[in-house]
Amino acid sequence: MTQAPLGSIVIVGGGSAGWMTAAALSSLVQTKDVSITVIESDAIGTVGVGEATIPDMLVFNQMLGISEAEFMRATEATFKLGIEFVDWGHKGDRYIHPFGQHGVDMEGIDFHQYWLRLNRDGGTAPIEDYSLSAVAAGAGRFALPDPNPRSVFSHLRYAYHFDATLYARYLRRYAEKRGVKRIEGVVKEVHRTAQGDGIAVVTMDPGAKVKGDFFFDCTGFRALLTGQTLDIDFVDWSAWLPCDSALAVPSAHVGPRPIPGPQRAPPVGSGGSRHNAAWAMAISTVEASWTMTKRSGSCARGSRARFSQSPARSVSRPGTGGSSGAAIVSLSGWRLVFWSRLSRRRCI
User: Fold this and answer.
1) How confident is the model over 311-318, as a mean pLDDT?
2) How many whole angstroms separate alpha carbon 288 and alpha carbon 192?
3) This prediction's pTM
4) Geometric angle at alpha carbon 236, from 235 and 242, rounded to 5°
């Protein structure tokens, strides 16, 4: 099936998702040949708490050609070497899931098999001791990976914590410099194609129409295009992953969170702790400083059926000055169909 080339792309929804999409597209196509438009409304708020990422974020920024130093200044970012889990196995249990490898595979056998054998024979060292990223995180230290593959520091892997709202603003500037257009307003109505299997145009409030050859649905769990208009089924995983709601709480930073041991240094990573009805994650960003964390955010995910009347108490640490937080519907699952190039749907 032959399709006509695209002349216009419309992204419905802004925030980090919408502007990441716009930035990526603007780096891949010539906007003089294909127009890219983002529709977003200042009246629709976003969750302004820190974003905890994984190393793939570095790949995305590199694809855009973004300077890491510039990105970190603009988004008040900090480095992240892994994720520390507290009380997940049992009360008092804690471990760090580091980015990068544990040890070195030998003779075609994964390193963790050697560690399990050593443990069986009386070894007591935790597996994190064999990860450079985990050891550095526990000591509160960081270094950029060495490009020389013969260096032990070449095994370091990292990601970022950053302010998601600032990241969206940064990518908006990036995309608009490359010709992306932004329309302020709320989508009032979505019109299907004549065949009924795709999106043709969206109507804004108070009435302006925006046409597109291809649409991206970045409206979050509302799924304005894919769910509410195209009726693409949502495969619900809540029977297996009952976390169907979240509470985001921005808070003031009150100093490093120590980990047990002689060094008692702040971990360079996210912190996830288990509670009775939810699990909570602490995320730190910086404010006008590269070296000292000044702001934190916490997010609890759990089941609405088990959240207490005041779930914020399970989220923010005492003394952090956490606000009341923003409640978010956070469903577990996926859309049955994302996109088929053979269809006329032309919407993701």
Assistant:
1) 44
2) 47
3) 0.82
4) 155
